[in-house]
Amino acid sequence: MPELPEVETVRRGLEPVMTGARIQRLECRRPDLRFPLPERFAERLEGRRIERLTRRAKYILMDIEGGEILSIHLGMTGRFTIVPARAGGAQRPGDFHHEAGGDPAHDHVVFHLAGGATVTYNDARRFGYMTLIAADEMATHAHLKDLGVEPLGNEFSAGYLAAMAMGRRTDLKAFLMDQRIVAGLGNIYVCEALHRAGLSPRRVASTLAGRKGQTTPGAEALAPAIRGVLDEAIAAGGSTLRDYRHTDGALGYFQHTFAVYDREGEACRRAGCAGTIRRIVQAGRSTFFCPACQK
DNA sequence: CCGCGGGCCTGAGAGC
DNA sequence: TGCTCTCAGGCCCGCG
C-alpha cells in the first residue's frame, strides 16, 4: 500500500514498542505471504531481542539479536496494528491471537512480545513479504543490492538525478518509479513531485541531464520537489488511501493536500495556473498531471 | 539493455 | 440489494 512516507510512518509507530523488546512467540497463521515465510521462521525469532528498526526504500528492517535482519515489505495492503500490554502485566499462557485491527481473516503474522504487547501484520492482498537476511548478506541480497539512493539522504541531489538521467530515453515518470534510481518513490509521490517541479511525466528523462551529465534547471527543480513532497507527507503521517492505517489505527492526512493525484478533471492548484488535471496511463499505471504547467 | 503487458491476490466502489 | 466490472499505493517475469 505504501510508498516511502507511509513505510516511514509505520516504522516510527513500531519503533517505541519493538525496539529493545524480546519476541516471546511468533504466531504464523499461514505459511506464506507473497512468498513462503522463511524456513523455521518462528524458531529463528523466538526468544530474541529486536535491537533496531530502520528503513531502506520501502522495506522495514529489524536487526535481530544474533545477527539476522528481518526485512518486511508491505506490498500494497500490508499494515501493522499494535495492541499494548494489558495493565497488570504479562500475558497469560492461554492468550492466543486476538483480533487486532478488525479484519482477523487477514491477520497473518503476530509478534507476541515479552511484556504482553502484540504486533499484528495484516495483509489482504498478500503482496507483502518477510525475509530473514544474514547481516553479511545485506550488501548482496537480491531485494536490496540494486536499490538507488535514499531521496531524503545526503547522496540525493540535482547532480545525482542529472547524472543518472544521462542517456536515458525512458519517460520521466518511469525513471522516477525505478527503484534503482531513487529508492522509495511510488505512483503517488512521483506524480506529486513532478507537478511541484513543473515537469511533464512524459518528458524524456535524459533532458534532465546537461552536457557530460551536468545538472539542469529541471533537475534543480526536481530534487527539492521530491524531498519536499516526501518530508511533508511524513510530517502529515502519510496518505490515507483505501486501507492504509497507522499502527494505532489512525489515518494519515497528506491526501488532503494532493496537488494532482486522483484529481482528474479538477482545477490545478498551482497559483496562477488555470489548467485542469488530466489522467493518462503510462506503463499500465495512472499518471495525473497538469498539461498547462508541467512541461 | 529497454519498455510493455500480464500476473500475483483480494476488496472497494461504480454502474446497471 | 446484488451482480459484474474496473481499478488499486508494488514488484517480478517473460516477451519482442
Structural commentary:
There is one protein chain. The chain has 295 residues and is α+β, with helices and mostly antiparallel strands. The protein has helices at residues 4-18, 41-45, 158-165, 172-177, 187-197, 217-235; strands at 23-28, 50-56, 59-64, 68-73, 78-83, 107-113, 118-123, 129-134, 278-282, 285-289. Helix 1 (4-18) packs parallel to helix 6 (217-235), helix 3 packs across helix 6 and helix 5 (187-197) crosses helix 6. The longest helix has 19 residues, at 217-235. The chain is globular and about 60 Å long. The model has no long low-confidence stretch (mean pLDDT 89). It binds a DNA duplex (16 and 16 nucleotides) through helix 5.
> Regions with pLDDT < 50 over 5+ consecutive residues?
none
> What's the N-to-C terminus distance?
29 Å
Number of helices: 6
Major sheet description: 4 strands, antiparallel
Principal-axis shape = globular
Content of β-strand: 15-25%
The oligomeric state of the chains shown is single chain
Radius of gyration: 21 Å
- Main-sheet strand order equals 1-6-7-5
What is the succession of H and E elements? HEHEEEEEEEHHHHEE
Overall average pLDDT: 89
Report helical residue fraction: 10-25%
Report the count of strand segments: 10
What structural class should be given to the helix and strand makeup?
Answer: alpha+beta
